[in-house]
Amino acid sequence: MKKITTISLLCVNLAFAGNITTLPHLTMPDNNLTFEMIKGYQDYKIVATHFRTDKNELRYILANEIGYNALKEKEKVMPGGSKIVKIGWSVKKMPSFPTALEADKIQRVEYMIKDSKKFDADGDHWGYARFIKKNGKFESWDKGVQSCISCHSGVKKSDYLFTKMQATFE
Ligand code: HEC
Predict the structure, then answer these.
(1) Could you tell me if residue 114 is left (phi over 0), alpha (psi between -120 and 50 degrees) or otherwise beta?
(2) How far is CA 2 from the centre of its chain?
(3) Residues 157, 113, 55, 6: is their CA dihedral positive or negative?
């Protein structure tokens, strides 16, 4: 598996996550997961922050209460109903202090939802959804979720999650 480098940036204000008020009616073509499934995600708790150096993208990982508590307790298998959301922003120099970077435009919202009944075919029990923002509008990912499963299978031992609860938030 391709190694991906992430660095942590802890000092960015999550208020940026709140700038989507109405969720677009979008459905993933291959598993029917919708954007509405994570309604209220702006209020989920922060689990971790990552920076993808290859994509120059700042990412926040948030979890609903079930997911958050399980990650906090370091549970080996995440319980059904866990929802883990990733929000990605492009970055720009902070006008008032150009050596600092700040979140600029939302590029993506992705999520994983644990549901053993619906998603037992692959043995991972997660449903995957990705919504990419293009020209100011979200579009659902139409290239299939197989790539999600393949890459996340690399972290099978941590229940297909790359993210761990970041120490600062414990
Ligand atoms: C080439 C590998 C790769 C592929 C393909 C991939 N991911 Fe991930 N994903 C990662 C890595 C690495 C992280 C942690 C770093 C970050 O936040 O980007 C991650 C994090 C996530 C998270 C936060 C939970 C976690 O596991 O840390 C979600 C949700 C997620 N990905 C959804 C998806 C969805 C949906 C797809 C497919 C449309 C997908 N991913 C495809 C590598 C991948």
Answers:
(1) beta
(2) 19
(3) negative
Q: Which atom of ligand 1 is nearest to the CA of 128?
A: 35
**Which residues constitute the domain of residue 33?**
6-169
Tell me the three-class secondary structure of 57-89, residue by residue: EEEEEEECHHHHHHHHCCCCCCCCCCEEEEEEE
Residue 50 CA, closest ligand 1 atom number: 17
The whole-angstrom separation of Cα 33 and Cα 13 is: 28
Q: Is residue 68 part of a domain?
A: yes
Q: Torsion angle of alpha carbons 125, 139, 147, 52, nearest 10°?
A: -100
pTM of this structure: 0.88
What's the token pair of residue 68?
């958050």
- Give me the helices (H) in the chain, please: 65-72, 146-152
Q: What is the CATH number of the domain that holds 124?
A: 3.50.70.20
Atom 23 of ligand 1, nearest CA residue: 86
Report which ligand 1 atom has the smallest distance to the Cα of 141.
38
- Structure-token pair, residue 11: 């000092």
92 in a structural domain: yes
Q: pLDDT for 102-153, tens place per residue? A: 999 999 999 999 999 999 766 889 999 999 999 889 999 999 999 999 999 9
